[in-house]
């Protein structure tokens, strides 16, 4: 398990690309499970969530999978889906393990650190997209930030309607 966490950390720190991960449905399922667990643990931390943990899990796991599949299909690189999706979910779970406790503990003092780690997470996702699409880093940044804005908008709408 530590080797897997190290692999995701290496991808997040741009030391490796998603191609470093095996194209495995089992590994994708493990990464999705890790993201779901971080949502469950995040619900246990103060401030209390709005009680929509199942919806949050579906959003946190499902939206990156759908977005990755659509973008890779448009770029005609569907063969990279398993590795790209696994990398996105794994790096997301790793970021959540760090960000959830920071978000709930010392809000003002840790705000700068939280923001820096979150920007680092978005840049790690940009690295994943750059690698998956064989493109420049700036396109990865645009995709990463665009996905964040889209994800936040959809998540807000779905959670408000539930």
Q: How many helices in DSSP terms?
A: 6
H/E element order:
HHHHHH
How is the main sheet built? none
Strand content: under 5%
How far apart are the first and last residues' alpha carbons, in Å?
Answer: 35 Å
Task: Please tell me about this protein's structure.
By secondary structure, the protein is mostly helical. 80% of the residues lie in helices and 0% in strands. The protein is built from 6 helices and no strands. Helix 2 runs antiparallel to helix 3 and helix 2 packs parallel to helix 4. It is globular and about 40 Å long.
Keywords:
162 residues, 6 helices
Which helices and strands appear, and what pairs or packs with what?
Elements: H1 2-12, H2 25-44, H3 53-74, H4 81-105, H5 107-133, H6 137-161
Helix pairs in contact: 1-4, 2-3, 2-4, 3-4, 3-6, 4-5, 5-6
Tell me briefly what this model is:
With 162 residues, the protein is an all-alpha fold. The protein has six helices and no strands. The chain has helices at residues 2-12, 25-44, 53-74, 81-105, 107-133, 137-161.
């Amino acid at each position: 398990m530590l080797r897997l966490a190290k692999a995701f950390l290496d991808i997040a720190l741009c030391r490796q690309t998603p191609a470093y991960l095996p194209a495995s449905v089992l590994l994708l399922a493990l990464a999705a499970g890790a993201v779901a667990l971080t949502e469950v643990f995040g619900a246990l931390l103060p401030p209390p969530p709005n009680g929509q943990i199942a919806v949050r899990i579906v959003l946190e796991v499902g939206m990156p999978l759908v977005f990755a599949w659509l973008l890779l299909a448009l770029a005609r690189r569907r063969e990279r889906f398993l590795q790209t999706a696994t990398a996105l979910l794994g790096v997301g779970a790793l970021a959540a393990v760090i960000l959830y406790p920071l978000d709930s503990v010392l809000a003002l003092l840790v705000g700068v650190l939280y923001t820096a780690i979150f920007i680092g997470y978005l840049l790690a996702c940009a690295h994943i997209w750059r690698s998956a699409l064989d493109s420049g880093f700036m396109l990865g940044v645009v995709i990463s930030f665009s996905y964040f804005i889209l994800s936040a908008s959809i998540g807000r709408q779905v959670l408000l309607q539930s």
